Amino acid sequence: MKRTLTFIVAIAIASSVWAQHATTFVFVKITESIMPLQRGEKYEDPLDEALKKAGLGEVTGGGSMLSEEKTIEWVGVDVELTDLTTGIPFLRKKLTELGAPKGSVLEYEHNGETVQVPVRD
Prior knowledge:
By secondary structure, the protein is of the alpha+beta class. Helix content is about 45%, strand content about 30%. The longest helix is centred in the first third of the chain and has 20 residues, at about 1-20.
């Protein structure tokens, strides 16, 4: 009985720790044609710093969408959020402050549904 109880308690603790670290992937599509280094300086670095400082997540990557002519059409930033309720409004506000243009969106899944939220109204 004691071993079973210990095992159940260990599972409960592990589940609790895992739930505290669960994140939601958010793709930030920014409708701006800028080079990768500029993307990092303008969006990725300040966004990562702000998210970490607020305890809401981190930037995990980024990329560029190229046209057939090999020009940058728009850029993307990958974010892992720890809390959607607080994180989505935070991302919208911070991206607006950083100059993300109209047409930029946040894309993520919630309850099995794909959600798109404009950065700017």
